[in-house]
Amino acid sequence: MISLVRPIIGSEEQAAVAAVLASGQLAQGPRVAEFEERFAAYCGVGHAVAVSSGTMALWLALLAHDIGPGDEVITTPFSFIATGNAILYAGATPVFVDIDPETFNIDPAQVEAAITSRTRAILPVHLYGLPCDMPRLMAIAARRHLAVIEDACQAHGASIDGRRVGSFGTGCFSFYATKNMTTGEGGMLTTDDAAVADRARVLRAHGMRQRYYHERLGYNFRMTDVQAALGLVQLERLPALTARRRANALFFGSAVGDLPELFLPRVEPGYEHVYHQYTIRVPGARDAFREGMTARGVGTDVYYPRTIPRQDVYRDLGYNDFLPVAEAATQEVVSLPIHPALSPTELEQIAYAVAETVAEIAESSGRPLKVFSSGLSSPSRPKDMSPIPVAPAPATPFELRAER
Ligand SMILES: Cc1ncc(COP(=O)(O)O)c(C=O)c1O
Description:
CATH topology of the largest domain: Aspartate Aminotransferase, domain 2
CATH architecture of the largest domain: 3-Layer(aba) Sandwich
Largest sheet: 7 strands, mixed
Structural class: alpha/beta
Number of strands: 14
Bound molecules: pyridoxal-5'-phosphate
Radius of gyration: 22 Å
Number of helices: 11
Strand content: 5-15%
CATH superfamily of the largest domain: Type I PLP-dependent aspartate aminotransferase-like (Major domain)
Distance between the termini: 19 Å
Number of domains: 2
Order of helices and strands: HHEHEHEHEHEEEEEHEEHEEHHEH
Helix content: 25-40%
CATH class of the largest domain: Alpha Beta
């Protein structure tokens, strides 16, 4: 079975982690400081604050903007639950508005319509690695004096006209094991605002600026040097890993783009998608499509089968609005393997499996067969399919299940 996720971890990562273990400096130390500096430079911002997860980065960002009880934060219903939960942790109220049907990202027009006197921030999510319409969202925020906290947990390196996500507002990244780069678990807050960065640093370590003097209620959100050492190597690899994801996406586009039953990711000019997920829409036949793919040895998954306000844990919070575009997306989306460790043969296998499955579904539903099952419209292979330069992998091969 071709799995949806296969992290690339080589002996460079092993050596970096081993060096930290040998140094005896295991908790937050010099590797964390170096990782913060490099990640800030990568995103094009002045400051980065490393934390223990993407979820904690989101919570910390809200706290660093002094958002709390009585405040409303406008966000998307179509995301991993951490997006909404972080707002609840801060004691604020998530206000969910609908998404754009083609990008799956928050619809700026709906954001504008949902602003009240209690709104303090907009929290867009660059879902699957595609940037939200940040020019419009930033303009709304400036006009209405709102903070912008970007959930960039799936979008390391994604950009609009060369400007990277995480540099528009306060950025929040995840380095969970299945993300485009990983530290196992981990996260990062990015900002150009020195005051936000300062508050975030103090809150990250028990409200402590001077050792054992605590000026406010803080937390332990710290990252370890072991994680940072891993992150530094992964950050070096990130451009190559992202280029491969994009090449894979280009291949799928040329291979299955003509199939009328499918809606492939749409990317506006100037937007750089980093394809954390390659998510397509299969209206009316998503589950049959998944079955067909599984039968052909290709793993798929659904991100996400239920919107955040429809989750059981949100049931008693009074979210009764029906958000039709997000609800339809939960029934129609499916993600295909796109990760950089896919071989050319696997890529072709996935593309053929898509074409055959779509043809099978069309046939069984009695619709005229618009596509053939025996071949593809001459897919053009990505030009550079040489292996990603990575030193020999760990001794024990492992498979990781995509949980996020
Ligand atoms: C969109 C989104 N937001 C937030 C998170 C939370 O990140 P983490 O798992 O590192 O806490 C994730 C990742 O799982 C995510 O995909």
